[in-house]
User: Fold this.
Amino acid sequence: MIILTSKNAKLIALAAACALSLSACIRPYQPDIQQGNIINNSDLREIRYGMSKQEVLFILGTPMVIDPFNEQRWDYFYSKRDQAKKETSQRLITVLFEGNKLVKLTGDVDLANVQQLEPSTEDKQHGGTVITEPTQPEKGLLNRLGILDSRN
Assistant:
């Protein structure tokens, strides 16, 4: 049988307060949220006026929206929410056809300047995975001081 004294009660209250304050410091992992069509600058460089719908479909993929009242307009939308930075980046490309030929590309990019586009983050994509630099700091005091090198 455990007897609860005022000293034990203080220790329990202190331990509970420490546990609560430490639990407030822990933030659960939240993955980045991507929605829509990934729009690569390298893919946009391949688009030319006069292309057929089939060629545009092959390069950019299935559009997110085909206007039911105007089948000559395709909309490609991409949104990425970076949970760490609490930022959302978006791209919208609208493709307009006359008959079966591409006549206009509007939105975040002008087809006349598409050759000058810098490679986007999505251009580094390989096999469905975006390749990025490691963001985790080196673990351990000896590794950070250079005494022990864990990469070998």
